[in-house]
Design goal:
Length: 353
């Protein structure tokens, strides 16, 4: 099918007229209440919708009906860094249009589809921005907006297109909602596996088959060693060796993206890390105190004073200790024994042992 025979090549102004807002004066702003009306500014347009929760208000007698906004109206930012962003006004109460905001009204409401209007304008974002950034200050005038060339679908096809897009985007939103739940589900699953691992449940069948020794309950000091505090010397932005801090401990691993350094040979010699060392965060917020990561010798490093270094022994594998200290059981223990300050909590080496 030749789309040109069914669709009409025309200017956007033949389908939509852009009505500019009024320059309400800030001295007339008043508290919301009876006898006042909200005025919509660019900042009230967010993520495809228009919100009045933070809108300024003016006395209703100062609002001209020419700038009235009604439910279903599509508004557009006409200037500034967010030029071209749009939002649908979906509230039952009326509002009024402030300057630098445009109201995109259909020329012929009977033969046009509102939802098609919304999707059409969204599809023209790159063209709107191209025209808006022609000057030093981003700005799109009504004349410039309405001169954009479009291929306009017949009314019956507008409704069909809008309906199809509604269905597609509804499925996308549902998929997005499910995806947003995945990290929480993965975290819950990870904690469940960790709990099973450190309680012996995960390897119970293996132990039965291989006649392995039963587990025993011990304190960390019975099987671990070290329990040393890190360097209290001031670190620098540059230096020869990284100084690992509490922010570098992330989910049982080390994050090397935000580092400070030292070149002090004595500090390096005293606090140098060895592969397999466990770093325990002794001071942090109540939620984060006790977080733990393992150093696997990725690069030469020392550790800072808010961390405690623990080392494995013949009876205690360092990788296993890292799993243990990140388990729900260990997190619960940290929550119980922490000492709370004004904004931070602390767990000293004695409590860790």
């Amino acid at each position: 099918m030749n789309i040109e025979k069914k669709w009409k090549r025309t200017s956007l102004g033949e389908f939509i007229k852009l009505k500019s807002g009024f320059a309400f004066k800030s001295k007339d702003y008043t508290k919301p209440g009876e006898g006042t009306v909200p005025i919509i500014r660019i900042s009230d347009i967010q993520q495809g919708k228009v919100y009045t929760s933070n809108a300024e208000h003016v006395p209703s007698e100062q609002a001209d009906v020419k700038f009235l906004i009604e439910k279903g109206d599509l508004l557009i930012a006409m200037s500034g860094a967010t030029t071209g962003k749009t939002g649908v006004y979906s509230e039952d109460n009326i509002a009024f249009l402030n300057q630098r905001v445009g109201n995109l009204k259909l020329v012929n409401e009977e033969d046009s589809c509102l939802r098609y209007r919304d999707y059409l304008v969204q599809s023209l974002q790159s063209e709107i921005l191209k025209r808006a950034y022609g000057a030093a200050q981003p700005n799109i005038s009504a004349k410039e907006f309405e001169s954009i060339e479009i291929l306009l679908a017949p009314h019956h096809e507008q409704k069909r297109i809008a309906s199809k897009l509604d269905a597609i985007f509804e499925k996308l939103e549902m998929a997005q909602s499910r995806l947003e739940k995945v990290p929480k589900l993965l975290k819950r699953f990870r904690m469940s596996v960790l709990s099973a691992a450190v309680s012996g449940e995960l390897t119970e069948e293996w132990r039965d088959v291989n006649n392995a020794d039963d587990w025993e309950h011990v304190s960390l000091k019975q099987v671990g060693k070290g329990f040393n505090y890190g360097s209290s010397a001031k670190s620098k932005k540059e230096g020869s060796v990284p100084v690992l801090r509490m922010g570098n401990l992330q989910d049982g691993k080390l994050d090397w993206s935000d580092l400070v350094y030292t070149s002090d040979e004595k500090e390096i010699e005293k606090y140098k890390l060895e592969s397999g060392d466990i770093l325990f965060n002794r001071t942090n917020s109540p939620e984060l105190v006790g977080k733990t990561s393992i150093y696997r010798g990725e690069r030469e490093a020392i550790f800072a004073g808010y961390l405690i270094k623990v080392q494995g022994t013949e009876r205690l594998n360092s990788e296993y200790l890292n799993i243990q200290l990140n388990s729900p059981h260990a997190r619960d223990y940290c929550w119980q024994v922490k000492t709370d300050g004004v904004s931070q909590s602390n767990i000293n080496a004695q409590k860790l042992k």
